């Protein structure tokens, strides 16, 4: 039993490191619903080579998060992406969330919250 626990203790950090995200986004400004937009970020060696970028906001009416895919297969080390925003309700409280291309339940750190006009 101790051998199994030791094996798990050794392998767990390796599994976690495989999906480590250290992205830091430049907080979006002047984004307008349905219009072209771009975002830049920093990343570190060891971050996944590609990811999917989600736009999210907490919906108080449904008491859940609404989300939209902004871009898929983004090259992490391009440090820049452009896309057209979906038609969303103008509001404060939107944020960006990177997720794994292979496993959408694996999330990176969210951006700061921002507004869309």
UniProtKB/TrEMBL annotation:
Keyword Signal: yes
UniProt keywords, alphabetically: Signal
Signal peptide residues on this chain, from the entry's feature table: 1-17
Pfam family name, one: Kre9_KNH
Domain Yeast cell wall synthesis Kre9/Knh1-like N-terminal: 29-105
Lineage top rank: taxon: Eukaryota
InterPro entries: Kre9/Knh1-like_N
Protein's name according to its UniProt entry: Yeast cell wall synthesis Kre9/Knh1-like N-terminal domain-containing protein
Naturally occurring in which organism (per UniProt): Rhodonia placenta
């Amino acid at each position: 039993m101790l051998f199994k626990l030791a094996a798990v203790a050794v392998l767990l950090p390796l599994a976690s490191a495989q999906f480590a995200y250290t992205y830091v986004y430049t907080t979006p400004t002047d984004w307008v619903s349905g219009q072209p937009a771009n975002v830049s970020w920093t990343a570190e060696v060891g971050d996944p080579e590609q990811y999917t970028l989600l736009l999210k906001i907490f919906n108080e009416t449904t008491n859940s998060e609404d989300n939209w895919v902004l871009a898929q297969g983004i090259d992490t080390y391009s440090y820049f992406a452009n896309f057209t925003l979906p038609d969303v309700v103008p509001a404060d409280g939107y944020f960006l969330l990177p997720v794994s291309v292979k496993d959408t339940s694996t999330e990176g750190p969210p951006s700061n919250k921002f507004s869309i006009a």
